[in-house]
Each structure stands twice: as C-alpha cells, then as structure tokens.
Please model this.
Amino acid sequence: MPINFQKTTSHSPVALLVTALLLVYIVWGTTYFAIGIALQSMPPLWMNAIRFTLAGMVMLVWALARGEKLPTALQWRNAALVGGLMVFGAMTLVMVAQSHGIGSGLMATVVTTMPMWLALWTRMGGERVPMTSWVGLALGVVGAGLLSMEGDFSASWLGALAAFGAPLSWSIGSYASRKLDLPRPAMASAAQWLLGGAMGLVLAAASEPLEGMFHATATAWWAWTYLLVFGTLIALNAYLWLLQNTSAALAGSYSFVNPAVALLVGAGLGGERLTGWVFAALPLIAAALVCIMYGPALLAWWRSTAQAVRGNDCKPNVPLAPVDKAQRAHK
Model:
C-alpha cells in the first residue's frame, strides 16, 4: 500500500520532512535507470500502461479506504485531461525516448526543463511571472540547446523529440491541474493514473504484442515492480505530502537533485558515457531553476543588503570631542 504521509506534524515533523525529501530525491532519481533495465526485455507501451493502471487501482482502493469520495462527472473529465497529458503523454514519451537510446542520466536532465515550460504557461494564462523567471527561462532554453548536441540525441532524432516532448506535456498537465476542478489528492491521483493508464492500454494494444510482457526477464520484472511500488505509489505520495506541508520551492527542489542522482547511477551502474555538452548544460539548467524557484526571494535579499550597505556608507562621520588643555595636563 502507499505510504500514508498525512498532513500532521504531531510525530517527528523533521523526520517526516527528511524522509519525504530523501524518497523524492533518491527514488525519482533512480527511476530512469530502472526504466532502462525494464526496457531491455519489456515492450515500452505495455510496460507503462500496466504500471499506471495497476497503480491507479491501488490508489483508488486506498483513497476510498480513507473516506474520500469518488470524482464527479466533471472531475472525471478533468482527470482524463490531466492524466492524458502527464501519465499517458509525458510518461509514454519517456518510454519512447529511452527505448530509442536516450540514456537515463540524460533523460533526467532534460526533464528538469519542465519548470521553465510551466512558467511560460503561467504567464500565457494571465498570471504575473517575475522577471527572474523569464531570465531563468532564457537560461533554460540555452541549456536545452546544449543538451540537444549530446551524443545520444544526435544518434536518434525520434528519441530526442520524445525526450524534449515529455517535460512539455508534463508541464501542460501540471498547469491544467492547477486550474481544473479535481478531487482530493489521493483520489485525483487514482483517477489520473487509471484514465492515463487506460489510454496507454489502448495504444499498446494497437501497436505492440502483449506477449512481450510474458517473455520479460526476472530482472526486468524487478525493475518494473520498483517503478510501480517506489516510483509511483511511495515517492509520489511523499511528493504530495511535501506540497501540502512545505513550501513549493522545497517540494520542487527534487529538480536539482534528480539529475545528479540519475547521472551518477547511470554512469556508475549502467556504464553510460556523457560528453562535455551535458556538463556545460547542467550549470545553466541549475541556474535557470534557481531563478524560477528562488529568484524573487534572492532579488529581495540582494536589494535589502545593498540598501543596508549604502545606508552605512552615507552615515556622517561623528567628530571626536576636542581635548582641552586641562585634560592634556591631567594626562
């Protein structure tokens, strides 16, 4: 069953916070490597569709057991849109990208461009976007351009398109989830996973033989189980708890950590090789995320510090009191 990260701080809130962050940092950073292992003998579309359909069923039972109500007709429709973009669209594109030769570390790095797209949709939707976010968006575009020169991308144009399309689809779904009427978090996840997984099942049935799942190796099934239990049911619940109990900046800090974890795991365990382009792109993407997530706070801090320094410089020098002759004689 999913870990129940309740919105409570009565039992070791610091321990809960650290546990949730470590789960999101480490587990989500390793999922791309697990996907690469599973794809070695599993058909990508069936693998993804069954994973989220089963996760949706488990989450539905879990949400009902917690007393959450089933979605209304409008909420089912909205969940279908969000699930179609995030579960079916984005995750299917990740499967396609990695099945066409995009390494796990590189894929995790590309996914960090998602907050940049989200900032763009936010502005187009009429919300105010700070100037620092636009600076971050520009840095991210440059970083994404450098990533496109990485060897894996040049070897497979289809994999490259799928890799860059995944965070684009995820960002649209994320923005839609903020604007649409959806049920409570656990039930919303259940509905989105079920409907997105069902869309994946239809596509898989039309394009891939199901027999490939039965011929998968034991190692692939272990990797798939890890994706289902840890990557979906546990880590995503930890992320939902972080969204409810911490700042958005701290909850979204996984964007900084996941690529480093994925690169280390991919290079250390998977023997993936990276050229200099990814190392040139990573600092730009990290700077972009800092501008988008922490830019206004950093700018306010810099302005207050500068004003304090200028204030100290403008203070008049107080002259020392003159010493009269009697005081000199006494000395």
